UniProtKB/TrEMBL annotation:
Protein name per its UniProtKB record: NAD-dependent succinate-semialdehyde dehydrogenase
Organism: Mesorhizobium caraganae
Keywords for this protein: Oxidoreductase
Family annotation (CDD domains): ALDH_F5_SSADH_GabD (cd07103)
Gene3D superfamilies the UniProt entry points to: Aldehyde Dehydrogenase, Chain A, domain 1, Aldehyde Dehydrogenase, Chain A, domain 2
PANTHER family named in the record: SUCCINATE-SEMIALDEHYDE DEHYDROGENASE, MITOCHONDRIAL
UniProt domain Aldehyde dehydrogenase: residue ranges: 27-479
Active site residues per record: 257
Family: Belongs to the aldehyde dehydrogenase family.
Entry-linked InterPro entries: Ald_DH/histidinol_DH, Ald_DH_C, Ald_DH_CS_GLU, Ald_DH_N, Aldehyde_DH_dom, Aldehyde_DH_Superfamily, Succ_semiAld_DH
Amino acid sequence: MIRHLRSPDLFGPIDRLPALGTRMGERTLEVLNPSTGEVLAELPDMGVEETCAAIDKAYVAQPGWAGFTARERSDVLWRWHQLIIDHADDLAAILTAEMGKPLAEAKSEISHAAAYLQWYAEEANRVYGETVSAPSADRRMLVIKQPIGVVGTITPWNFPASMVARKISPALAAGCTIVLKPAEQTPLVAGAMFALAHQAGFPEGVVNLIYASEADAVGRELCTNPKVRKISFTGSTEIGRLLMRQCSAQIKKVSLELGGNAPFIVFDDADIDAAVDGAIQAKYRNAGQTCVSANRLYVQSGVHDEFVEKFVERARQLQVGDGFARGVDIGPLIDKKALAKIESHIADAVAKGGAIRCGGKRIGTNGTFFQPTVLTGVTSEMTVAREETFGPLAPIIRFKDADQVVRDANETIYGLAAYFYASNLKRVWRVAESLEYGMVGVNTGRMSSEAAPFGGIKQSGIGREGSRHGLEDYLEMKYLCMGGI
Ligand code: NAP
């Protein structure tokens, strides 16, 4: 049962949301509120059989959807965008109930999701080909772009609305059809968005939703079913590797948005107040459960103590609690495993000489709340500096040498996001160019936008989402050569 909904029946009975394009399974999937442990809803728990049925529907629907004009596809995306805006408050309430994030953050996520739909409703009209100067007079050479086909998509729990929109709106704009499996912990907001997609007028079989607790079986089917031409996945690097292996037999295309280990560097010439602001956002937004969370904070010696003092002061002021409560900045962690991970990172750091400057403990026994925590005296040998924590823990590393810190920042298998604060123009350019990351925030702690290409290098992923590049990832290039002209 989800309280706080203005129109509880809007999406159909919320505790048994139908998955569009598939039939109800016999087994059920329980969705819990991480703030209270309360059961919010029971959904049909689907498996391989339902996944195959959804793939078949998407396969049958795809040529028809690709045959729509770009303007017609754009119109349906616009209508979906408008429905999401109209129902933003309810979508945000569902999101907070199943994921825990503060309601204000949930509203901002719904706006972000809607912004992707708007962007790709516009971008659907901007698919261009090329003509090429032929090397002989009797030939004409050109390139056209066509949709890849059926796309299998898998999304995580940390941004359960915006990841769905960011992934499927470019696919739909390009003329692909999709089968989506949202995370087991947060399927409700995806279900509500799909109910609105249905109202927007996508033809039968274009968008298909699978609720499943057996992610491995559903994932394997999506990767190995020959009717699926591409897999688009957001989640951990470990599962990304597995899916890539499963796709290799058919040389299936993949887009992978994976884990990160973002460095956040504050140089001596930075505006310290701005850097503290940026670090608070980049670290504690969504309780630190974002792939672009600042995972390691490097602060240069000359400003280290001032930064730590101000940062700790701000971290102490953050209010932790139920996402529906007024004034809450940080909600619960997604589950008990997440609590255990953050505790193990703290224990390892303290055993190796790190100091807890604030926080460090669970809050209460109900739910999965954790204090915003700051560690100082952190070194690169500690687990917290090497692995993604995915929690409200800020490890601060003091550094002296500006060249060395860039080498340390790059010393990771990940390459998603990095941040730094500096004012010297030459340093800004050189550091921005030297950081081996797909995205670099310069004097800002927040950079995600539908207008920009989001994605990582190294083991943080393949492909980009957002911007015109996001659309290209769902298009194939076909070269036409006309002879005898
Ligand atoms: P995860 O365990 O990899 O799960 C992500 C999705 O994959 C979920 O839907 C999950 O389903 C599914 N999954 C799990 N095992 C699978 C399998 N064997 N085959 C197919 N699908 C499978 O990641 P998470 O813990 O939910 O999300 C956190 C991770 O995502 C972090 O590493 C974070 O950095 C990354 N992330 C990256 C981005 C980005 O844009 N680069 C954005 C957000 C998050 P179940 O829920 O049923 O297990």
